[in-house]
Amino acid sequence: MSSLTTNTSRPSRVARILNSNIVYSFRRNPVAVVSMVVFLIIAVASVLAPLIAPFDPYDPASIDIMNSEYPPVWVDGAEAGFVLGTDDQGRDLWSTILYGTRLSLIIGLCAVAVQAFLGITIGLLAGYIGGRLDSLLMRFADIQLSFSTLMVAIIFLAITQAMFGSDTFNQYAIYFLIAVIGIAEWPQYARTVRATVLAEKKKEYVDSARVLGFGPIRIMVRHILPNSLSPIFVISTVQVANAIISEASLSFLGLGMPPSQPSLGSLISSGFDYIFSGSWWITTIPGVVLVVLVLVINLLGDWMRDVLNPKLYKG
């Protein structure tokens, strides 16, 4: 009878999550709530782009050059079928922004996944093994940090484009962007994870795992890594925003996504030549979407940093 009472009175996993400090802090932070709502609206709309978008910007049959540079519906001379107007190729800007946002989010998330995999692996090895391996890996990370992400990306993408040609580069541009942005930013994870590992590997639970005969890989992955997740989550949030900005910058410079595969950066780039001729919406509206997307991600990252840092969190 007592065991039955204990089982029925134990809160469920969902109840424990809803009553946790993180959810409580989130509910009390209006900036975090609004940022999450805006981010979810943008993310869900971009994921559902094939269902929401009235036109397919990838389908040449749905594009008519005669429809180019129509203004948004609130400007004189607009066409009722194009809510946000059209770009210089005659594509519906609302549809193109939806598909472009989805592409920018995919590149940002995948690039951060590459960064996290490389950085966490190198940070765990450097911090746990130490010695010469630690010195070698951290000096390599210092060298990597001495170059800006854009500098590394511009050099790599320019060489790649020259080697494979424009057609091949445009076909696999998304993979090149994910790889170069991911490789250029791994030291951020490596240095943070290494610092956490140096502190964690001296604790008693690690000594107990060694006494039980667990190998180094199991200790690093099953015991030390879970205690390093808080700073990793914070870094990942900020790095997604940085990756989206990097993709947009590279696309604006002509080294990112081609015009036939619109991202937010390539949309801003394609409309920049027309901004002074009166077709301001081609650049301005995707630019506003990019700014809002990066802003809400950074605000969520700031909230997460505060709530996961016990020295800053006040309840």
In words, what does this structure look like?
The chain is mainly α. Helices cover 71% and strands 0% of the residues. It has 15 helices and no strands. Helix 4 crosses helix 15 and helix 6 packs parallel to helix 10. It is found in: Cell membrane. This is Peptide/nickel transport system permease protein.
List keywords for this structure.
globular; 315 residues; BP-dependent_transpt_permease; MetI-like fold; mainly alpha; cell membrane; transport; MetI-like_sf
CATH superfamily: MetI-like
Low-confidence stretches: 1-8
Percent in helix = over 70%
Mean pLDDT reading:
81
Give the number of DSSP strands: 0
CATH topology: MetI-like fold
Number of helices: 15
Estimate nothing, just give the exact number of structural domains: 1
What's the level 1 CATH class? Mainly Alpha
Estimated radius of gyration: 24 Å
- The shape is globular
Query: What summary fits the major beta sheet?
Result: none
- Determine the strand fraction and express it as a percent band: under 5%
**CATH architecture descriptor name:** Orthogonal Bundle
Distance between the termini: 37 Å
Query: Structural class per helix/strand content?
Result: mainly alpha
Order of helices and strands: HHHHHHHHHHHHHHH
